Amino acid sequence: MDIKEKVDKLIHRYRTNEPFEIAERKNIPIIIEPLGDIWGYCHSYKRIQVIHLNSDLDYIDQRFSCAHELAHIILHPKVNTGFLRMHTFFSVARIEREANSFAVELLMPDSILYTCEHRSIFEIATVCGVPEELAELKRSSVKFFYPNPEHAFLY
Fold first, then answer.
1. Residue 50: CB partners within 8 Å, gap ≥ 6?
2. Cα–Cα separations (whole angstroms), residue 30 to 9, 35, 54, 65, 138
3. What per-residue confidence (pLDDT) applies to 111?
4. Residue 154's pLDDT is what?
5. Which of 6, 18, 39, 53 is 20 to 30 Å from 59 by CA-CA measure?
6. What pLDDT does 139 receive?
7. How are strands ordered across the β-sheet holding 40-45?
8. pLDDT tens digit string along 24-58?
9. What pTM did the predictor assign?
């Protein structure tokens, strides 16, 4: 099952694409605290997944960070990226890219794209709370739904 399918299944199961609500319904505690330059992270304590978000971020960025951390819990439940970065030569780029793709798919479901077809992918990303630089992740996944993605959105 690819990331888009996992997100679609999650949205269907919980009938929402709101990451805070999904985390609450999955009994994942969210701790909002000062984290300096870090947007957020997740960890497991006695088999309980916990999401930490930076209190210095605005709500839109906290929401994206929550979706990103939720992705790590769902896609990579046993991976400790902090440990991998500090103690191994393993590249975490793929894991972070997958978490970003998951967050983009969650916050920008296809149903929203279909109702905003006269907007650019970047405008839609802004409305959905997705950082503009990550909007490309969604545009690349749209090609499966439109024969020519350039016709789907204004760029």
1. 28, 29, 30, 31, 42, 43, 44
2. 22, 14, 11, 11, 26
3. 85
4. 43
5. 6
6. 73
7. 30-33, 48-54, 40-45
8. 999 999 999 999 999 999 988 888 999 999 999 99
9. 0.85
For residue 136 the two structure tokens come to: 């490309």
pLDDT at position 151 over 70:
no
CB of 19 closer than 8 Å to CB of 66: yes
Q: Answer whether 106's CB lies under 8 Å from 17's CB.
A: yes
Looking at this protein, which amino acid is placed at residue 11?
A: I
Residue 129 pLDDT greater than 60, yes or no = yes
Cα of 29 vs its chain's centroid, Å: 17
Alpha-helical (H) ranges within the chain are 3-14, 19-25, 59-75, 81-87, 93-107, 110-115, 121-128, 135-142
Element holding 33 (H helix, E strand): strand 30-33
Q: How far apart are the first and last CA of the chain?
A: 30
Q: Which two tokens stand for residue 73?
A: 């819990």
H or E segment to which residue 50 belongs: strand 48-54
